[in-house]
Records
---
Amino acid sequence: MGDVGPTCLADIVPGKDIEGDDGSDPSVPPDWLDRDRYARGRQAFEAHAFQFLLTWHFSLAMGFAVRPLLEALVFTGRSSTPATALKRYLSTYKFLAHWHLGDVFNPTCTAYEKAQTVRGYHAQARAAMEAQLGGTWLSQYDMCVVQTGFMGALVVAPQTFGLRLTDEQRSDYVYFWRCVGRQLGVMDKFNLCGRGEAVAAHITWEVLDEVVAPDEADPPEPDYDTIAHAYLTGMNPLGPCANMWSIPAMLTYAFAFLGKKYSGALTCADYIRLAGYHTVRLLVVYAPGFAWLANNVVLAATYLLLALPDPSAREGCCPAVPGTPGPCRRRRAAPVTLTLTPARRACYAAAAVCGAVLLCVMAAGYVAACGAAVVYAVSYFIGTVLVPQLSR
């Protein structure tokens, strides 16, 4: 079977009235599956984990204004405080990492189990929202719009954090998300990654222009502020410095690389944050060894995180909807593919901590060297050009 899927956003709009799970059997691979291409698509994460993580972080901050996503987050009640938001989005990252490091088509792999776990969470939230609110929730359309948040920015604006992918790598990564979408219940005719990288990029731009930008210009209040503030307050302690993240600074930075302008006001602190984001990007692109070290720090922390037990993954309980019983997980969990001994776990922890410290020292050193170079250049100009001219 050849490429199947939407050619533009208008082709996805009818999916607003269609349930977001097509009921496909995840244990039966689709006819179009190319395992070699799927495997190549997964490899991009391991090679660029640091840039992927930052891009997802900024994409999520942009996505909070999208009404179907925001309404689902508010309804489930698991993202309204810094503590619950941090727990929820760390869990989301763990799912993403499992999918990128495993095989979502292999029933004996944790990635497969985690894909079906998320599919179950969606089913529980969908049923609860439709029972209480009526209408169609977490539809095929909603699933596709959310899909752009995970793969869209990496395809249309990889330069945001210095990500360098070849045309083939971008194409393979879009194919990877075609596969993940299918395992989450997205119908082929609505899967925006079904027709390749060029069409996926086109639809992503349409989503940005016609969905994200209008919602960002007039975000739903007060829910938007509540959810966004909870997320960033929860994430800020994890940054290299206090209060590194703010919605105005992050949107200003992200919009600039998308050829757009953020209409909100910036404080002095936001301008300092902006300078920090640009500094990180310059370090990734131009500082020898920085991107390699940052990537390996993220991977070490990721492997350690994946080895820790997930307290929310209890049989018969869906963390997406508080107090909701049901088969969110398969009754017979797939074998865990990542098992670390205490010694190995300690090694990963030490590598992550030491690497992070070294990363900060390296960044400070590069910034100091650049600052010294600027001071030297200005001093040289004053001493050799300006002063002789003034003394004549």
---
Amino acid sequence: MRIGIIRYFSLSPTCFKLDIKSYARQFNNGSPQTIYNKLIDEKLLKKDPKQVITVSVFDELHRRLNGYQITPSKTKGFFGKLFGGGESTKAKMQGLYVHGNVGTGKTMLMDMFYHCVNVNRKKRVHFNSFMLDVHSRIHRVKKTMKPGETKRFDPILPVAIELSQEHSLLCLDEFQVTDIADAMILKHLFAGLFGEGVVLIATSNRPPYDLYKGGLQRSNFVPFITQLKSNCDVLNLDSPKDYRMDGIASDQVYHLTTKAGTEEMMEKIFIEQAADRADVPVSDVKEECMKLRVLGRDIVVRRCFGRVAIFTFDELCSQPVGAVDYLEICKHFDVVLLTNIPQMNIFKKTEARRFIILIDTLYDGKVGLIMSAASPIHQLFVKPSKRDKQLVLQSESIILDDLKIKQDDESLDLNVFSGEEEEFAFERAQSRLNEMQSKEFWQEHKQLRNSK
């Protein structure tokens, strides 16, 4: 059996680069417990006490959701709800919210569950991509309204009902709330989804009570946390080990700009990667400039060849670029080079947030990333001092004035001034960057791109 299944994994069993979907197909009516136990037996995973508990919970959920489907509201019910027609009477099915440290196997275990569970209308997606889709749908609903209608009803509920018509089960990876627009949407959105009977499975690095911690107007968000805990069991998967750190770091994909010759090295790597991906001689690589059309505007890729592109940090993180742009880049390129990454601090929070979203998107898209940076990965984000926070508070005091928030030491703990959310998110990004440097990650990347 070992020879038969080894093709579903990268060369390192500790790197957690498992193709769960392909592996699950081998088992008729397989369950998360069946797959996890088999991987342990084959020594392709190491048994972890916290994971064992989590798998058993997923296994019970797998049993309870067998054949689960909901009957979403029809047109009559939709308008009844839209104009206050009462609460849903659908039977409630409890979901699951799994949180814990980075690299402990949360996503892997959720994927085991997702690919085994017998639910026809199900969706597994990264939280950032999910919210992009939600914002797009809300925008579309607003465009259909006549002037003045937006004041009469909330466009979020139609979106919730629309989503429930598409999905009975929703699995969201990396659930995190850092944006005030997302924070204000979630309560209304999930009130609609839960009301329609949609079951939520989510993974996160934060427990529910820490979501949007220190965020502006957080009191308006707190009811969502109560709503979340009411509809999802909460499970802590704080395994003491970050398994992503087991990969063997490659010295070919992360270069320090403080070393002489780094710029020339990045140019050389760009040409070599482009030639290798296009299967042409190095002499045939001619730089191109192309435009990617996203939501009615252009992303300019100034330097690329075939499926390889090279960007500066400023191009992708200092400009008004977001997750939807990064997703489009992932569709067009297999390898991305990112040059001149600076150390980031509380004064570069916006750039830091974009950088974290970029890393998440490239990681999920299995895109090879080669970087040059001013410091080692663990030093890319500098923790702010109290003085730094005070300076930011002074420079952005207009925000507090608009929200009628008193300027004092407690104000320093708000995310907009503290940098705490960025510092926390950088821990996940650091873990992912370490894995993306590993030989195992690049071996899997090569296998995936050769299969295209």
---
Amino acid sequence: MRNFHVLILLIAGSIKGDSEVFVARTGDEVQLPCPVNSAECGEFHSLKWYRDSSRMYVYSPVAEFSNAEGSLVDRCLDISQRSLGPKCSRGYLEVTDANADLKISPIELMDEGEYRCEITYIDVSNNCPVVHFTKLRTVAAPEYVSMFINNNPDEDISGQVVGPYSSGSSVAFSCESGGGKPAPSVSWRFGEEDLEGETTVDENILNGDITVTSVVVVDLEREHSGAYLYCSVINEVLDEPLETQVQVDVNVAVKSVFIEEETTGQEDTEMVISCSAVGGRPLPVISWHMPEGVEFETEEESEILEDETFKLISKLTFTPTKEENEKYVSCQAINEVMDEALEDEALLDIMYAPRVTIEDENKTMTAGDEIIINCLIDANPMNFSQVQWFHNENVIDVEDERFVEENSEIVSLAINPIVPGDAGNYYCLAENEVGQAASTNSFDLEVLYPP
């Protein structure tokens, strides 16, 4: 803080004497001059000091009387100041042959005013000045700065986290500072944005105390979640602003929900699917919707992002079967700010080994005819590493020109012409990257031929 004993000194001419202006800070000492010039004007009978219209000190060297009056002796009448004893007075004279200066210590705000000393000389023929004017301006640093919610002025929220408030709402904050003189200026900052408040100044006419109140209305948006609201006050006594702050908790809806891209699994092998809900505050709730009958477990982890919102990750664990292939799974996220949940869904890709069946029923054919045997295959993927046909447990050599094999969802084996040796039992086998399987049933062929 600056050291204010005498900051400003103005000297202007006056008919009755000189006028000086002093600036003094509360708690300091000031010495107000009153020239008496005994060498030229002679001895004086008495001297009185006034502040405005109130008498503050009376001194008479003739009557051997010296007394402070008015507000300078208020402490002497205050029982709580009893320990001061004879030092209770805040005013006393320092008298020399040239001056009868009034010293006031410690300075209080109410000491401000126009002071004059009136001198009564014993010999009035010397035409010496008998009145001297001095102006005193008192200043003080603000003693405090506090912040309140405007609708609850009794609770100081300085340094606290306030809220939560919903995004899109408006909140009025008030900032109060007292004890400063002159009235400090008030400034607001919310995050990186400067705000303009509406300021009022109240002065206590009894003791000169000044209270400054500034009100600002803050429109809260998503980006304000976790932001700090600052109120700063400063006047000429302070080198640095006096500041208080609160952190504003803003509830916002979840910004996005998405299921991670990896939704490919394998039958009878445990798999994990992740769903992320980003940008909500407070922490949202994630719920899953799975194909009917699927049992699953979930676990969650969360983190706070740079904007003070949350990212919540829910990991769902289950063991799929082929029945879940090409079925949809969805996750929903909602928090207390939202009326409806955000949702994302994904298509499951469950790989499984082939399921193989023979389509045809047993047949009786005549030698020389043609027959086609169909094998139905259900698999994922449908890219087969091998498909084999068996006749009486022996692998059929499809390179034989009598056999024609076609592979698709229906694998077929054409035999042309049929010979008596083709009679017997047939089945097929298919293999993909997951595994292999033979047909669950077989086909019996009976061949008729002439003797």
---
Amino acid sequence: TNSLPTDAWPIACNNTNSPNEKSTFPCQNSYLTGFGGHIIVDGSQGTKPTGRFSGVEMFRVGQTNIIGRYPIHFHMLGDVTATNYTNHYVTDSSVHDSYFRCYAIHGTHGVLLSENTAYNAIGHCYFLEDGVEENNTISYNQAALLHALG
């Protein structure tokens, strides 16, 4: 059977600031509330976690407009290039119907994102959060049907 929610409409809700306009933010009391699961590989507390994801499907994940609550998020791991991509990667995976972005790399150098797909997501899908991240390989990925925040 189809697991999609039955309350798929309205896709846009009334804007609380301008009642005559529609908003692209999630609707209250529907599956479009914008609150889904997320995975953070977090090194900000001085820990050295490992993030290895292969063949993972993520559906209705991320949390709309909440910084850092992305479906898969490598967070402040520092330089992991010495591991030669063996401990920090996402390959052959998919994110679809995401509430906020798809794959994020923040303060981390040396992650491999390869052969992944992203479909029907709000915001960027292959995201370097600060723009200073180096030596990450983002290759052979696909993204389609992306929606702007707003």
